[in-house]
């Protein structure tokens, strides 16, 4: 009983001390917040707000968390990585090239293909923002325009019509009025379809080699020999003789009409 009363007294005392500290912090916070440099927003003549450079930098760093989603949804990365994965499956090389190598090739090829778009974003949006010619809201509007043009050029009209109907957007005067919530899934759907079409074309010559090797082994009565063991060297030789990497990478880059 004595220990219980002592514990209750300590708990009550600590609770009051914690309450006093919290109230003191709340009272002192406004005076310290006024001393924070740069984290302010000022109204502009047009009715908007001009955010300080410190706050813009904070928002920009916070937006880096969405970089993987942006990379997958708004660039050529999806088509490239799917085609490279299907190429590895068609050749039957299992884990060669490794996933890290495929990701590296896809990332650098994506950067190469998206360079015109990134340069346009830099010239029309980033440079005016750093020169304090435009505010952060105008920067976002200008930055999305090159990506919208790129995605619209790669998106099929049936896919756009499907998501416009599902989103119940209503009549639109032109593609420039499409909201991003409609354009993004339509673009990804078109990219998946294009990637599988390219992958089907890649599979055909390797499939023919597999059929020829399997038929030859059956004719020779070599049922116990895995066909992949015999066909893999022929696939590699064919791929090297036709300069397969140049054909694949060149065809992928040209499929975006960026060169």
UniProtKB/TrEMBL annotation:
Localization per Swiss-Prot or TrEMBL: Cell membrane; Bacterial flagellum basal body
Biological process (GO), any one: protein secretion
GO cellular component: bacterial-type flagellum basal body; plasma membrane
InterPro entries found in the cross-reference section: FliP, T3SS_IM_P
Protein keywords: Bacterial flagellum, Bacterial flagellum biogenesis, Bacterial flagellum protein export, Cell membrane, Cell projection, Cilium, Flagellum, Membrane, Protein transport, Transmembrane, Transmembrane helix, Transport
Membrane-protein topology: Multi-pass membrane protein
Top-level taxon of the source organism: Bacteria
Transmembrane segments: 57-87, 99-118, 195-220, 232-253
Major localisation: membrane
Role summary: Plays a role in the flagellum-specific transport system.
The family this protein is said to belong to: Belongs to the FliP/MopC/SpaP family.
Protein name: Flagellar biosynthetic protein FliP
